[in-house]
Amino acid sequence: MKEKKVRAVEIQGEYGAVTVSERVLQKIWQRGDFRQERLRTLEGQRLAIRRRGRWNHYEGPDFREAELMLDGEKLEGDVEVHFYPQDWFLHGHDRDPGFDRVALHVCLFPPLNSKRPAVTSGGHWPPTLVLLDRLEQDLESYASEEALLALEKTEQLAALEVMLAARPEDRLAELRERAGRRWRQKAAFARQRLSRMEWDQACHLTALEVLGYRRNRAPMTALAGHYPPEEMRGRSAEELFSRMKGEWALTGLRPPNHPKRRLAQYLELLDKRPDWPQRLIEWGLEKRLHCRAGAETGVERRRGLSAARQVLAEDVLAGTVGGSRFDTLAVDAFLPLLAVKTGAELFAAWFHWWVGDMPDTLKDFLRQAEITGPGRPAANGWAQGGWQLLLESGL
């Protein structure tokens, strides 16, 4: 059977054009990485997803054998995923009998006109679901994760050749500039989140997302929606884990990253520090977080950033989360949220912070590009700049 071609488009993001593979959208659907409560199709029908279907990597619809509920009635069939509704016709699906069993057309963007978004060769009009306003992250963040996955599978990187061709000082300047784009992107998303929910709930949701990391973010997000902090307290990790049975991605997962263990850590935090979001605000105003962006990372850490990190771990989080996931919480959740909430300038602290969950291949890339090494410790800013470089390369 012939393997299907993976298409990519250039989408204008908030901080420039982003090359996004169609595989990104397919993974969003496959993982259920979008808000699924009170779904409605473009045609106004109530939609509930029982089974998202089996991912088809060959010719034909993207997902086979999905099970849906449409206005309360069971609906089985295939699912096709596109960037734009008109892609259905551009790709010739309206003339291909292989798409006659499509039960749902999933698109990132809404249609540009009133024309029906899809029709099969047999004359059936499958309903359309638009995902844009249901995403939990901006599209640039999803695309960045796809770039990381590509990096993990790529041995020869054109990006590395480009970096090594530049002078050492130009490489550093380039990654600093790209890290700044990443920071503005994260702050913009934090601002959007805080515009639609209270501080405590935003902290609750974002912390659970990060604890779920890439593979289990969606069910963690769903749990945060089902159980506000005061309702989650006192429940067991087993109960919460069972609430999302069938939604967890567990294959090949390292024991420390098992969602049941991460849930237990978060429940311990809620028990020991029920006021942790308020403590976080106080911590965010600490003078020791007032770093200088152009200074050396080692100097800023000795100057006070190391002490601030210890306070965050012990006083705010009560020692409940450690290792690289602790630092990922700081850079992906706490510092962007705090920058928006308090108005403090926290980019430099974010840049000099310790690296969180970073793939070994990205560490190797930064070393080979002579970004990190003797006298220049690995820092979050270099990692984030590297991620942005890979994202913009369209990997």
Architecture overview:
This protein is α+β, with helices and mostly antiparallel strands and 395 residues long. It has two domains: 8-31 and 36-134, no CATH class; 139-393, no CATH class. It contains 15 helices and nine strands. The protein has helices at residues 22-31, 87-90, 139-153, 158-165, 168-196, 199-226, 229-232, 237-243, 259-272, 276-284, 297-316, 323-342, 347-352, 360-368, 380-393, and strands at residues 8-13, 16-21, 39-40, 46-51, 54-55, 63-70, 73-82, 102-107, 128-130. Strands 3, 4, 5, 6, 7, 8 and 9 form a seven-stranded mixed β-sheet that branches. Helix 6 crosses helix 9. The longest helix has 29 residues, at 168-196. It is globular and about 70 Å long. Residues 152-156 have low confidence and may be disordered. InterPro entries: DUF2851 (IPR021272). This is DUF2851 family protein.
Descriptors:
globular, two-stranded antiparallel sheet, seven-stranded mixed sheet, 395 residues, alpha+beta
Structural class: alpha+beta
Helical content (DSSP H or I, runs of 4+): 40-55%
Number of helices: 15
* Quaternary structure state of the chains depicted: single chain
The number of E-state strands comes to 9
Could you describe the largest sheet, including whether it forms a barrel? 7 strands, mixed
Task: Provide mean pLDDT, rounded.
Answer: 87
The share of residues in extended strands comes to 5-15%
